[in-house]
Amino acid sequence: MTYPLNGIAPLSHLGVIRVEGEDAAKFLHGQLTQDFALLGLDQARLSAFLSAKGRMQASFIGFKRSPTEILLLCSHDLLPTTLKRLSMFVMRSKAKLTDATADFALYGLVGDAVTALTSGPQSAWSKADIGTASVVHLYPADGQPRALWLAPASDPAPAGTAIDPALWLWSEVRSGVATLTTPVFESFVPQMLNYESVGGVNFKKGCYPGQEVVARSQFRGTLKRRAYIAHAAADVAVGAEVFAATDLEQPCGTVVQVAPAPGGGVDAIVSLQIASATQGALQVGNADGVPLTLAPLPYELLADI
After folding, report:
1. Where are the beta strands (DSSP E) in 100-250?
2. How big is the chain by its Cα radius of gyration, in Å?
3. What percent of the chain is modeled with pLDDT above 70?
4. Of 242, 252, 256, 255, nearest to 285 (Cα)?
5. DSSP assignment of 33-66, as one string?
6. H-type helices in 183-252, by residue range?
7. pTM
8. Distances (CA, A) of 116 to 97, 127, 141, 286
9. How many alpha carbons lie under 13 Å from residue 260 in its C-beta half-sphere?
10. CA nearest neighbour of 271 among 237, 224, 304
């Protein structure tokens, strides 16, 4: 089956936090898991905002619109809480945080809609400015290039065939790069979602909340969970527990992100105990569970940083 991953879709599930001021990059550098101090105008950053215990409270795609303005794209449902908590740490920094969602239009571009903008393949987290629009290249899905398009709300939509936003959400799952939402707030350290392998963690930068937990998980061999792509014949809910068929008492994982699959059923990103992922049948829920079938990840995991 050929999946129709070619075109553009408006993205209403994401919100925009604007961080503005001469200390914008310095402030974010001290709060998030990625390096914002060296962020160039031709780059974007995948990053996370953590609790003191290293648990993810939000995930972002961040980039500069100008030398003193950084935009953070995150799940719309987490934006109010995240904006409030981040603002608490501004203190004397010359940075102002606001909800700028209404100021911009966001689109997802996939397949031909991306290649029409570029002369060749672009690396993930590279950014280009096209007129008043910012284009951030993402991880591909099933070999199809993908990008985010952000422009002022009054601008026309980017060129391309319209596709159902549900197809874009499916491409997000197939890319294997998870976006945190409310049901899984504070459920994972970044490596449980493979963030260190897809550009979401910088182990060489300075301190940020939760850094010690993240570093300990990476370098002391304490990480026991990873993210995987899975398929289920019936719908499953984000936040639902995953069980090994051989042990229906103790969950071995959590559903992180779900989207309807064009061929039927749903595809999901699940965070699983590494041991359980390699040992037999899995299901969502312990009573009348929905069977899960794991699929290969579309990227390699970093065994050593």
Report:
1. 104-110, 127-130, 133-137, 146-152, 225-232, 241-244
2. 19
3. 97
4. 242
5. SS--TT--TTBEEEEEEE-TTS-EEEEEEEEEEE
6. 211-219
7. 0.94
8. 34, 15, 17, 47
9. 6
10. 224
Instruction: Quote the tokens at residue 224.
Output: 């026991």
Classify 72 as helix, strand or coil.
strand
**Residue type, position 186, single letter:** E
Chain centre to alpha carbon of residue 52: 20
Q: Which two tokens stand for residue 216?
A: 């300990």
DSSP state of 236: -
**Residue of 120, 154, 124, 145 lying closest to 136 (CA atoms):** 124
> Residue 218 corresponds to which amino acid?
Q
Give 16's strand partners: 73
Rounded to 5 degrees, what angle do the CA atoms 284, 192, 288 make? 5
Beta bridge partners of 258: 268
Quick one: tokens of 110?
A: 């996939």
Q: Quick one: pLDDT band at residue 279, thresholds 50, 70, 90?
A: confident
pLDDT tens digits along 5-64 = 899 999 999 999 999 999 999 999 999 999 999 999 999 999 999 999 999 999 999 999
